[in-house]
């Protein structure tokens, strides 16, 4: 998802009564951060903010600098139990862990050591294989256009070979900027292209349509578009513990398409929408989960995870030779069956 950046100066808040030893500037710094957590986190309603405020005041009562106050802010963030977001300062980084560890196969770990790349290939029975990597470019609009073109051109090259069905491999797609991914796969997604945000009360949110957002989105549109595919074409989507964030949202969107099945293992579980916030006083940046996501039918993914239709344990992922990959082989069996 696109990260929005909000600049929040400590002066935005009124001066609250500070402790005897804590300067007002530090108090405002702390309260600015807590205000952001309360107003923007999807999980804010799960937290007793009175208790958090009391604990933060106690933890930071002797803090005389922003740096000394950071630990109390990080503790407050941890109470959200937000495993997608994080807090970062000039010299510290914190991400909440729910204790669940994800196990990545040797194949994925080996592939992560290589530069991110797109892979297209035609397998047995004219099944097209398309590996879509993550797009870790932040909000760089020039890179958005570059990646949109690369992703789209690769798909068009594959579709020009007239495959009977497709495999979309998202097992190594751990997120990043979703806009180029969705725009590139638009010929496959059809109406499933549309996704929505939903707030903590499970209310579907209106899509942003301001001029700045629309102008930004234009950078993700490829210069060359493939022709839409037949909606009856079968598509197998591969997912696993390496599929995260935008990769999960894309898998969710594809799964709402007819004639589509998911193969592999469950995703990491951060299928949600995030926003970024910067407190200018200390280069203090936090990323928060702000909304749930929903598919084009407005079905909200409350679990924030994507589960395969066909489970395949990914012990022997093979990205060099997809035909020898067990998850690919399972997908090929389904794709080769007569409808």
TrEMBL record:
- What domain of life does the UniProt record list for this protein's source? Bacteria
Instruction: Give every Tail specific protease domain span.
Output: 126-312
Which Gene Ontology cellular-component terms appear in the entry? outer membrane-bounded periplasmic space
Give the GO molecular function terms.
endopeptidase activity; serine-type peptidase activity
An example GO biological process term is: proteolysis
The protein, known as: Tail specific protease domain-containing protein
Where does this protein come from, organism-wise?
Flavisolibacter tropicus
